């Protein structure tokens, strides 16, 4: 776990999934509350640093990594999986292949990240329900198979976007709370004083 200074923890969160499932728009909707219809495809990686206040009153810092979904960038992106505390794995409810490829993404994730890392499955673009190819039930079944939380959301309308991140942060703090306490304990310890020496 990284720290931005001596007293703050920084949690690393990745957005993963095929190209054009809406990862960048999902992050923009959350971080800037805007939607850009023709968003430029992410090349490599991009990230934002955000301070978040939880319902408990506690503040945490999060690194939000937006990764390119094209095959040619996936090897590069995999180098950044390590050390992740949370992963939002997105598919497009109107694109069958993006859902079919979720299993491959999960395999890649499990090869690179800690077993403690929190994975959420997200069906994006529910504003395009009339073009839906993957039912909500199919998404729920796949999430249940992997024992991970499932949400449907829309980066365009903003529906459920904040709720996804809020649930992820709460789950991360629940799972990694022991590391937070350990960090706080180390910070609260008084440095050992050196014994005086006479010459």
Q: Helix share of residues? A: 25-40%
In the CATH scheme, the class would be: Alpha Beta
> What is the third-level CATH name, the topology?
Rossmann fold
Strand content range: 15-25%
Order of helices and strands: EEHEEHEHHEHEHH
Number of helices: 7
CATH architecture: 3-Layer(aba) Sandwich
CATH homologous group name: P-loop containing nucleotide triphosphate hydrolases
* Strand count: 7
Instruction: Please give the largest β-sheet.
Output: 7 strands, mixed
**Inertia-based shape:** globular
- Stretches where pLDDT falls below 50 for ≥5 residues? 1-7, 184-199
Instruction: Note the gap between the termini.
Output: 44 Å
Average pLDDT reading: 82
SSE map:
Blueprint: E1 2-3, E2 9-16, H1 23-32, E3 45-53, E4 59-67, H2 71-78, E5 86-92, H3 96-100, H4 102-112, E6 118-124, H5 136-146, E7 150-152, H6 161-175, H7 177-188
Short description:
The protein has a single domain (2-187), classed as 3-Layer(aba) Sandwich (Rossmann fold).
């Amino acid at each position: 776990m990284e720290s931005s200074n001596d007293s703050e923890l920084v949690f690393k969160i990745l957005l993963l999934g095929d190209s054009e499932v809406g990862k960048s728009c999902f992050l923009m909707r959350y971080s800037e509350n805007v939607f850009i219809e023709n968003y430029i495809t992410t090349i490599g990686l991009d990230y934002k640093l955000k301070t978040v206040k939880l319902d408990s009153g506690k503040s945490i810092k999060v690194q939000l990594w937006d990764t390119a979904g094209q095959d040619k960038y996936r090897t590069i992106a995999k180098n950044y999986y390590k050390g992740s505390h949370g992963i939002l794995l997105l598919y497009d409810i109107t694109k069958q292949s993006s859902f079919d490829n979720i299993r491959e993404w999960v395999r890649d994730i499990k090869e690179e990240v800690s077993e403690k890392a929190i994975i959420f499955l997200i069906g994006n673009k529910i504003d395009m329900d009339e073009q839906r190819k993957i039912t909500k039930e199919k998404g729920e079944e796949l999430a249940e198979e992997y024992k991970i939380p499932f949400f449907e959301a829309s980066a365009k309308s903003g529906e459920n976007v904040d709720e996804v991140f809020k649930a992820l942060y709460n789950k991360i703090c629940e799972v990694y709370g022991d590391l937070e306490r350990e960090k706080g304990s180390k910070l609260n310890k008084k440095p050992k004083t050196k014994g005086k020496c006479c010459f």
